[in-house]
Specification:
Strand content: over 45%
Order of helices and strands: EEEHEHEE
Shape: globular
Largest sheet: 6 strands, mixed
Helix content: 10-25%
Distance between the termini: 26 Å
Strand order of the largest sheet: 1-2-3-4-6-5
Structural class: alpha+beta
């Protein structure tokens, strides 16, 4: 995706994960988000998502991500207002309209 950003997520100056995002005219697509095992379950992923939700809402764009149907993180997305918008094999497209 031309123009996508790939950021290293740091916690206390240590690399903790990655965030790959494409920002289009009407959609912000989370292409990949991953945290190393020692950093999971600490609210870091939730905060990253909340920042993207705020960005999407502030720019009146929907926020979207493809996840595997049985991915445990899907519950986080649903808590943040994402809803299923389509299926592609083992993946479901989740979208969150701006509020």
């Amino acid at each position: 995706y031309p123009g996508a950003t790939l950021d290293v997520v740091e916690v206390d100056g240590k690399p903790a994960g990655r965030l790959y995002v494409h920002r289009g005219a009407s959609d912000i697509r989370i292409m990949d988000i991953a945290l190393a095992p020692p950093f999971r379950g600490r609210g870091i992923g939730t905060e990253l998502h909340r920042g993207l939700v705020a960005e999407a809402d502030g720019s009146r764009r929907k926020l979207s991500i493809h996840v595997e149907v049985n991915n445990r993180a899907r519950k986080l997305y649903e808590r943040l207002g994402f809803r299923p918008a389509g299926e592609h094999g083992v993946y479901v497209l989740l979208e969150r309209p701006p509020t």
